[in-house]
Amino acid sequence: VRARLLLSTHFMTGTPAALGTARQLGLDVRVLNPGPGQTFHAKADLAHGADDTRAVIGSANLTGGLATNLEAAVALRGTPADAPLADAWRWAEMLWRDERT
Predict the structure, then answer these.
(1) Which of 3, 57, 66, 100 is most buried, with most CB under 10 Å away?
(2) Cβ 56 vs Cβ 73: under 8 Å
């Protein structure tokens, strides 16, 4: 199973080292910087198997947000055909294939 990481680099420090580490760990990495004055700021973790699909969608950043802020998230679990999960996967795939990555 391949893991993928899609992120923006606008506000990150240490980005080259972090991306290198992610690649060394076997992640497929893409960077999406939509354009001037815009950043990719979505936070969604998606996983699926043949009959089980999961998503965690929330506000926590990969920086201090997980450790120092009060954050919120929703966890979804179901089948690949369940509409909210299917929609989340379509959205994520659309971003992964965005020509700006």
Answers:
(1) 57
(2) yes
Please report, rounded to a whole number, the percentage of residues in the chain having pLDDT higher than 70. 86
29 to each of 14, 23, 101, how far by Cα in Å?
15, 7, 10
Burial of 22 (0-12, 13-18, 19+ CB in 10 A): middle
β-strand 44-48 against 53-58: which pairing, if any? antiparallel
**Strand duo 4-7 + 28-31: pairing:** parallel
pTM of the shown model = 0.77
Structure tokens at 25: 């760990």
